[in-house]
Structure formats: C-alpha cells, structure tokens
Amino acid sequence: MIRSALLAIDVGGTTVKSAIVDESGRVLARHSVPTGRGEAAQAAVRDAATHLAARARHLGLSLVGAGVVSPGIIDREQGVVHYASNLDWADVSLRAVVGSVVDVPVAVGHDAQAAGEAEWSLGAARGSRDFIHFSVGTGIAASIVVAGTRISGSAGGAGELGHTPVHPGGEKCPCGQRGCLEVYASGGGVARRYFTLSGRTATAREVVQLLDRDPAARQVWDDAVAAWVTSLATCALVLEPELVVLGGGLAQAGEALLGPVRDGLARALTWRSPPALRVSTLGTDAATLGAALMAARVARVATASSPVDH
Ligand SMILES: [Zn+2]
Q: Which CATH architecture has domain 3-111+285-305?
C-alpha cells in the first residue's frame, strides 16, 4: 500500500532545510542546500522540492501536501513572500515555486510562527495555553499564544519581539531602529558585538565556550543576558505567560543562557512570579516540522473539498 507523506521546507538565511514527514511528525528523509540570495534562493527551494519528490517516489510514498516557511512579510492566503531582506526577495510566490515541482496543495507561512506551532503541538510547549516561543538565530522572532490562541496582530505582524527596544538610543539595528533586542541577544548580534569588541571572529557558540577565559566574550554574553532579562520582564508583565521557550541556534547554549536569564528575571520581577523558561525540544527542526503541520492542514482541506467519485 502506498503511504501518504508531506513535503516540508524551511528557507533559512543560510540553509534551505527540507524533509519528508509522515502524518505523525516523523521525519522520513532530509535534505539541506545552501540558500543563496534572490533568484538563487528560489532555485534552492525548487531543487529541494525536486530532490525530495524523487526521494518520496523511491520510498514508495505519495506526497499529499507541501508546507514552506520563510522569514519576512508573508501573505499566507496568496502564498507569497512580500519582502524578506535576508533573502533579497520581494513578491516571491513560494506557492508557485514549489507548485511547479509537486502537484499538491502548498501552504506558505512564517518560519518563526511555524517553529512556535511545532513546539506547541510536538515539543516544549505541548499542552500550554499561554506561552511565548522565541526563534533565536541570526535575528529573533517570536510566536505568542494567549488563552490557547496564537496572536497574529491586525495585519499578521505580531511577534516581532526581536525589534522591541531594550536600550533606548542604543546600537543600530539593520531594521533602522536603535537598541533592538536582537542587536544584543541574537546569535548574529553576539557574534557581531564580540568581533567589534575583540577584533576576533567567533560564532555565538564559540563565544559561550570562551566565557571563563575571555573578558570580551564575558562582556558580550552578560549584555545578551541583560537584554533577554529586560525583554522577558516586559513580556511577563504584559502577557503573563506561564512558559517561555527559547529555540534556534543560540538556545543550544542551554543552561549557559537559561541559568543567568532565569536568575536575572527572578531579580527583575519583584512582585510577580517569572514564567518557566525552557529550551526548545525540537531544536533546529522546529520550523521544518511546523511547515509539515501546515502541509497536513492544507492536505486535509484539499481532501475534504475534492469531488467524490461515484
Ligand atoms: Zn531592529
């Protein structure tokens, strides 16, 4: 019997990660290619879909839906990325790009929202009705769930907590503002500030390994922790989430990040209990699995609305 499966694609700033996933969220095959920019990034998405469609045939699987997620300003209805600065994309129809390869319904969404949804259904936020999930990588974006409903905002743009100011008049952010959370507290921000301070190149992960012996690493990390504490204190007071989940590359630092942030938050909130703080359980798979969940939904809708044979 031919088993049905879903195609899931996560278009990141550096890598297009894709997978074939079954209905229970199990990954059956994976593929990764460098993203590139502009047209090349679209070609990378097409290549990922082509590769995994062939792989699905080889495994005797029938693809029934596809989900593709990216950063930027997304029109989910139309399946279009209106703008994504890291990818050099303006008005790119991801639905058309993937639909040119596989003849299945294609759902398009935002990577951070997809990651939050996956952690909610399958990971660290399972069963929670009030939580914030942060995707922490090159930048920071969040998915906010209040009373069991994800907040999307008046125009779908809620959750840009990476660009909330933590230092008025602080360092400049590529978004044009100053003092944004992600300038200090993202993986990209930590690496950039370490280079500025020390003249040496290191990834955020390497900065963590240098904490005990490199004052510049210690300074940059303490600044990142302080920025997280300021931001999470505000979140806790505005929304009173029961849980905050940190996902993405920087969250892999684990207790090196969570420990001092937890302590700082307990000190900052003098009269309110801080939310529980957890690292994502799906790790860097979260957005891909979120894309698979979207694919499953669009496949179900297509099945329900297709004409019945008599
Ligand atoms: Zn910003």
A: 2-Layer Sandwich (3.30)
Distance 1 CA to ligand 1 centre (A): 51
51 CA → ligand 1 middle, Å: 36
The domain locations on the chain are 3-111+285-305, 124-281
| Predicted confidence (pLDDT) per residue in 194-239, tens digit | 999 999 999 999 999 999 999 999 999 999 999 999 999 999 999 9
Q: Is it true that domain 124-281 has CATH number 3.30.420.40?
A: yes
* Cβ neighbours of residue 257 closer than 8 Å, sequence gap 6 or more: 208, 224, 225, 228, 246, 250, 251
pLDDT tens-digit readout, 289-303:
999 999 999 998 887
Asked if the domains at 3-111+285-305 and 124-281 fall in one CATH topology, the answer is yes
> What's the CA gap between 35 and 21, in Å, rounded?
21
Rounded CA separation 232/227 (Å): 9
| Interval between CA 171 and ligand 1 midpoint (Å) | 10
User: How many A from CA of 181 to the centre of ligand 1?
Assistant: 7
Helix and strand tally (H, E) in the chain?
Answer: 9, 13
Whole-number Å distance, alpha carbon 267 to ligand 1 midpoint, is 26
Token readout for 211 is 């904490």
Q: Which burial class, exposed, middle or buried, applies to 171 when counting CB atoms under 10 A from its CB (0-12, 13-18, 19+)?
A: middle
Distance 172 CA to ligand 1 centre (A): 8
Provide the whole-model pTM.
0.90
As a whole number of Å, the end-to-end CA separation of the chain is 22
Tokens of 229: 């504490």
